[in-house]
């Protein structure tokens, strides 16, 4: 969340930012009123506590009559202090509730727009858009041809939106994991296999709303646990409440996890097949940095995503995400959209990765700090995340872009050492 002092001192800028991001700013007026009262009650409680302590000091040399009077005054002061503290705590809870709904500030370079239709294309990958001299098949047709994906069995076992990967699809999934993790480990990332569940406090810290009618999160009944939608949740939560040494930063992790999403209201032609499912495997990059490093590390994460999809020989474009499509925690976000020949009548772009700089927005909620050597005090870290490989969407991009006239699928050279073959089919 944003710093409450920053919000008070920059209220007009915060309101404008909310407007650009499509978030109602009506609660900010109440925030100003509640935060002002909270500060007043805090000062009142501290002053009453100081007066009570002064009386305790005076009692040491007081006469018996004075001591009884001081005791009675002290009792009243403590009662008044407790009442002021109680009022403060109620107001503080309200202020934190309002702050939790205010989005992060936005990088001035990000395009202003209502939704993803106003994202700004800023680059293209090395591989040109696929041009076939035959009618392209989508990944569902190719999956059926080579017995790679079984949605019917998934529906019988777990319901619509679940699936089985079979045969070469399984080898492809494992190859993508090995390829991405090995590349990132060479770049200095620490590999981490994360839990598939996290408590509600951690989800709130990262910026997810785990419970309620509009959530995309699966919750486990009668527990405080939730299935994670991304390893961003668990990787960020790994260091909650800790103080890192500045020498450890930037600390870069690559997480392997399953991801679970309800995808409520996500039905549609563009969401068919593996594109929008309830469970998938993802390789996730996550970084903790000093504030002055986060912009450069963000560019590094974006370049790594480009390197991965260039190596997979998949056509893509990079878009700078518009303010209305950023999500609460992101200060700036880039998406990679792969060309998917099987979408629409002639192919369409489909998001395969994103990378966000969340500045200190998540770190303030999770209380993750760092300490400079020989310096008093601590500072909030900046957190960043980036998809390396979302397996299901990467499989779509590979199958559809590397299909051949006879229905076989060429395996990208980067994956052949782990696939053990050059062609599927």
Gap between N and C termini, in Å?
A: 50 Å
In what order do the strands lie side by side in the largest sheet?
A: 1-10-11-12-15-9-8-4
Count all strands and give the number. 17
User: Number of helix segments?
Assistant: 13
Structural class: alpha+beta
Mean pLDDT: 93
Spans where pLDDT lies below 50 across 5 or more residues: none
Helix content: 40-55%
As a whole number of angstroms, the C-alpha radius of gyration is 27 Å
The biggest sheet, with number of strands, parallel, antiparallel or mixed sense and barrel status, is:
8 strands, mixed
What global shape is seen?
Answer: elongated
Order of helices and strands: HHHHEHEHEHEEHEHEEEHEEEHEEEHEHE
- Portion in strands: 15-25%
Short overview:
By secondary structure, the protein is α+β, with helices and mostly antiparallel strands. The protein contains 13 helices and 17 strands. It has an 8-stranded mixed beta sheet.
Layout of strands and helices, then pairs:
Elements: H1 4-9, H2 11-20, H3 27-58, H4 64-99, E1 120-124, H5 139-145, E2 149-150, H6 151-158, E3 164-165, H7 168-186, E4 190-193, E5 197-199, H8 200-206, E6 225-227, H9 231-237, E7 243-245, E8 251-260, E9 279-289, H10 294-311, E10 316-320, E11 332-340, E12 348-357, H11 361-366, E13 369-371, E14 379-380, E15 382-390, H12 391-401, E16 409-410, H13 416-419, E17 423-424
Parallel strand pairs: 4-8, 7-13
Antiparallel strand pairs: 1-10, 2-3, 5-6, 8-9, 9-15, 10-11, 11-12, 12-15, 13-14, 16-17
Helix pairs in contact: 3-4, 7-12, 8-9
